[in-house]
Structure formats: structure tokens, C-alpha cells
TrEMBL record:
Glycoside hydrolase family 2 immunoglobulin-like beta-sandwich domain segment(s): 161-265
Transmembrane segment boundaries: none
Location of the DUF4982 domain: 630-688
Key words, A-Z: Glycosidase, Hydrolase
Residue span(s) of domain Glycoside hydrolase family: 708-795
Organism field: Microbacterium aoyamense
Keyword hit for Ion transport: no
Official protein name in the record: Glycoside hydrolase family 2 TIM barrel-domain containing protein
One Pfam family, short name: Glyco_hydro_2_N
Amino acid sequence: MIREPFADGWTVGPKLGAFESPTELTAPHPVHLPHDALRDLPRSADSDQGVHTGYTPGGVFEYARDIDVPEEWRDRTVLVEFEGVYRDAAVFLNGDFVVHEPNGYNAFTARLDPYLRFGEVNRLTVEARAHKDSRWYSGAGIYRPVHLVIADPVHIALGGLRVTTPDIDADRAIVEVSAVVENETRHTARTRITVVLTGPDGDEVARGTSPVSVLPGEPATARLRLVVPRPAVWGPDAPHLYRFEALLERDGEIIDEDATTFGIRRLQLDPQHGLRINGETVKLRGACVHHDNGPLGAAAFDGAEDRRIRLLKTAGFNAIRSSHNPASRAMLDACDRHGIIVMDELADTWTRAKTAFDGSVTFADRWRDDVAALVAKDVNHPSVVMYSIGNEILELATPVGSAWSRRLAEGIRSLDDTRFVTNGINGIIANLPRIAEAMAELEAADPNTMMANMGEQMALMNASEFVSASIEESAAVLDIAGFNYADSRYRGDGVDHPHRVVVGSETFPERIDVMWSLVTELPHVIGDFTWTGWDYLGEAGIGRVDYTDAEDYVATGTVGPYPYRLAESGDLDITGFRRTVSYYREIVFGLRRDPYIAVHRPQHHGRPTARTPWSWDDSVASWSFAIEPGSPVTVDVYADADDVELLLDGRSLGVQPVGAAKAFLARFETEYRPGELVAVARRGGAEVGRHALRTAGETGLVARAEASGDLIFVPITLEDAEGIVPSDRDLTVTVSVDGPGVLAGIGSGRARTEESFAGPSYTTYDGRVLAIARRTGPGALTVTASAAGFADASILI
């Protein structure tokens, strides 16, 4: 079927009762899809959704759109396809109920045929709900793309194309394709399917055809087995993509067509070689990611998803885990293009609830639909290598939980046996009732001490005999045992379960040096997925650093008090800017030769801090501070070397060994003076790399632009003539868009803020803010940034 975008002409407002009338505050307003109905709602400390959503309230929303239905649609199939509506979506046409989809991450279709009024304007409405149903910021509403489908009653089914590549060698690949044809008439349809495969260069590489007789109401599957000579295989370093186009003919006329991309690649898995793609072992440098797009809220714009994947790959990651819900189509498309391996996750809960109104209530009845939706979305994406059936499931260690593990794993395999099945197992979470006494002892201590020791305690518990026994069956149903915060199991599992393959499905960012040494040493451990690769909304403040001598400091453990909005736990912040931890990780991965300087903010030197296991140091790559020369400062240098020498304007500040305080790190206690700070890394006395920071001169406002689909990302910085950005001169920036476009969002990496992503003004963080414009038509577009005391920065696109 041919999909047409269905993004404009919509309105949204709070859902009113049957006898309520709209007021000025509740009147619907125009929106462009995808759209997040929660993003711009007022936040407050007393929000009943609390820290989970970054103190954003929930609500019930109604989207509406008029459809002009011509008479000629009487003989057509009319569908609206939703890629995702959060949550409990209910679709109505002219007030008549059409379809309900409880899962906020499933794609679903509204068949309008029975409800259409031909020759009239029809009213399509979509209700969506979000309230205390998620442990993170979910957004709400029609947050993923929507498509209108007008098709012949005899047509290729939506999602009806499938490709597998079961037999590959250097000379040729066997490509098995199928297409499901549907017949909604009263008579048998005699049709013909023609399949065309084109290669990465756009040239045709194979073609086949087959007649297909389709009985009324009984879908027919056409299958062809094609040979592709000298295949260009898909892999992380060379993500070659092919195109599969299907043409449906009747009486010599093409009545429908559809197409999908695919990759030719071979997967292998065993404890001796780990994960192999096309015969080569691949260690997964993984990032857990949530589904929001920062300043855009939960709205899944294609350009935003592509940019996120590109920047994650630039930062050294080669894999993502969609935590803890199925990824969008656009994100999978981006992973296909850029060579990122995907662990796509089904759900955060099964039958035991984690929040008041989450999906556990309907899971037992709906799991087959959820599994089918996940597989249907993923099946042609070469980037998807693993399906995860869950995350830290509460009932996993019980006999019933083990039965659910088996049921879900087999449910996926029955639909797609070409990929591997895993699960994010946390042995402590799965045994909470049994270890309540031990946890109570931990919680009796000072909260900061408890949090500081959590990583060690979790490691000890996760490796215990009773945890091992309790999760044995649930782990046995998997192809890959995913362990959350359980690297303490890696060595033992290699002995106790010699046929088990393991992945670190969720790990503490601060421990990547330990994790990666285990991954590289142990062949049965195929990779590590850090929490998290990209910062996100909700679980507010989970990765923050508190200064405990502050007057307003209150020990709250992992709960970031209002107005925290972001988790502050990403290698990249919500704007895509790389935090210092990202460069440390890149060096640990062996992807960066030069050292990297990270300066602890000198204005806080000597102050006591409280951290969580998801925290990194409060450091910046800057040597520009508005403090007195001679003020004390701590400087870290990340390096894969024996030692590091630090120089200021050519004068040595000393040499420190790498690894004394932490692996891959040399620490200096010195004094701040403006100038050029240079770190020189040496191994065996020979220089292996260097990194320099310089003090900024006179600064001005600078805007740059990067187009991605319909979106234009505009990083705005306060910098000097050499591009140096001081980290402590923040100011409020106002952004305007002139021409065929609008400001879609604006934000910074600051985790604690009351500012609105709707703009038009926002305060920089460490000298940076990101504006996002959305095109509304063709033509020149100008984005202008202004701030008091500075000349405007304008950019023409």
C-alpha cells in the first residue's frame, strides 16, 4: 500500500466531558504531527507524576482533523496508519468508535471504510491518555508519524513485505521475499506480483514475478527466491542497503505497490566467538536510549532520530538498546543507514506493575499483539539483531515469571527466528521480596553512603547463589542472557554455564573501564550498554552531582528535587553535545589516541559532593573561568598512556601516572591562570598524543545550522574568534524564525530548570543552547539568535 503523510490540519486540546464546553484555556489549537501534548504543560513541584516525568503533569487529550471524503472513495480501501499514540488511543470517525490501541508504542491501523460519509466532510478524532503510567517521561498524544492510505480493495497488505537472506557467500546471496496480498471484494482476484531488487548503487540486481490468486477475505502470500550476485553485505562498518519493490498487477494494470529496504548479512552466536556479523566478531559498544528527543519532547521526527543516531556513532557507539519500549521506525531506519546494531525492547513490565497505571493490567491479554507489532516493525531492518522481551521484570524469578519468559521468547521466535532473544535481567529487582531485609539494612545508612555503595552491593547480590538459582530458567530460554548491573556474574557464568552468551544490557557509566576490560577479555560477553548514551527527560536528576554544603541541599538519593527535568545521565546531553564522560569512554574503547582534558569546575573546588552510581564528575573541557588567577583547580586528563605531563603556556605543571586514581585517568591539583593548557600523553617515554585548552578571548554570539529532514538544528554558542566557548558566562538567548518555518523547540543541557522548550527564549548552559526550526514550505529560511549586549547571530538556510 502507498502511504501518504497525514501530518497537517490537526488540532489538539484537553479531552472534555460530553456536557462540558470549551473555554479559552481548553480550546483546541492547531498542531503539526508528530506532536507531544505534554511538553509545554506547566510543571510544578506538586505534580502527581513527580520525578518520573520531570514534574510534568499528565492528562487526557483529543486530536481532531477534518477529512473531505469524495464519492470516488466508495470503491476504495481507506485507512489511517498510526506509528504510535501514547497512550490508550481511541479513534473515532464522526463520533463512531473505530479502534482502540492500549500500547503507546505499537503501530496500528484505523480502518475508516465502514464509517465514511461520502461527499461530505468527515471528522476524525483521536483520544490519548498519559497519567502515572511510566517510570520516565513518555510524552502523550500522536507523537509518531501518521499516514493516510487510499488503496484498491485488492492490495498489498500494510507491512506485508518481508525479506530474509538465509544463504550468503561471496559469490551470491539467496534472498527470499514475500508479499501478502489482500482482497476485500466479493470475487476472486487474479493478480500478478513483480519483485525488483536494487543494490546500494541503485542498479537492479534481481527481478522475479509470480501470479497470485486471492480469494475474498483470505490473504494470499506470494513468495520468490532470488539470487543476488556478489552481495554487498550490511555491517557496522559498511552498512550496505538494498531495496525491495513489489508491484501488484491486475489485467495488466499496476493497482498497488510497496517497497522496503533491507540488508544482506549473516549472524552467528556462540560463547567462543561471541556475536559474529558476516563472520567477524563484533563487540557491542552500546548505549541505552530513551525515546524522547529533548527539546522536541517525545515527538519522533525523522530528522531528530537520524541526528541522534549519527551523533551517537560519532561518539564511539556501535549499538543501541531501546529502553524500555520498541524504537520508532525512523530510528531503525537511521540505524540501518549508519550501521548501528539494535537491541529492540518489548516492555518494561509484564504482569506486575511498577507504576499505578502502567501496561501490566492488559499485558496478559495483549502480549501477543505487542509481540506481533514489535516483530512486524523490525523484521526487515538489518540493524535489529536482538529482541529484548523485557527490562528488570519483577516476577522473573518466580515459576510463573519463568513461564512468561518462555512464552514471550517462543512467541517472538514463532514470528521471526532469524534474530536472537535476550532480556534485561536484574537479579535483585527480580528478588526484591527475598532481599528486603538486606535492602532495609542498606537504607538504614546515610542515603549518600547507600547510593555510593549501591554498585558494589548490587554486584555482590547479583552474583549470589540464590540469585543465580532464581533466574536460571528465565535465562535458559534466551539466546543471550542480558544482565543489568551484574558484571560480577560474567566470569562465573563462563564456568557455571559454559554455553551461555552474556551481554551487559545496562551498566553504570562510571564503571566502563572495568566493564570494557571484561568485554574484551571474555569471548562469551558480547558487549556493554551504558545507562545512558543520550540524556533524557524524566527520572529527573538520577545522574546529578550535588554539593552537600549548599544551603538548600537535601539528601534525596536518586530523586532529583524540583525543578530537575533531565536525568543528567548521558554521554551526550539532550542537545547532542558530548559531555566529558563521552571522551573518557572513547579512550577506553580504544577509539581515541589523543588524551582529553576535563576540568573540575574551579568555583566548586574543595566542596563535598554527593553522587549516584549514574553520575560522572562535574567537569568541563574548558580553561576559561571568571575566577581569580591562582585559584586552586583539579584537572583530569583521560589517556591510554603510562603518564601525562600538564603544561601551561609551555611551563610544566608536573607529570602524573595514568591509573593511580582510576584507569585511563591522570589527576592534577594545580592553580588556574589564563593561557594555554596542554596535556601530553606518553608511553614508554614517547609521546602518543596531546590535547589543548585555551582561555577564550572576546566573545560573540554564533549560530550554525544543520538540516536533517524537515528540521534544522541550530547550535548557538557564545564563543571567541577561534571558536573557544567559555563555560561560565551563560545568558538568555531569544530565537526567531523568518520565512517558511517555525521554531519547533529550544533547550540546553541544563538538567535543573523551569524554562520552556517552546521558547522563544532559553538560557545557555556552559555557553551553549540548541534551537530547532521546522520547515513549513520551500524557500529561504532565516534563524536569528539575539542576546542582550551582543550582536545578533543570523543564519540563512
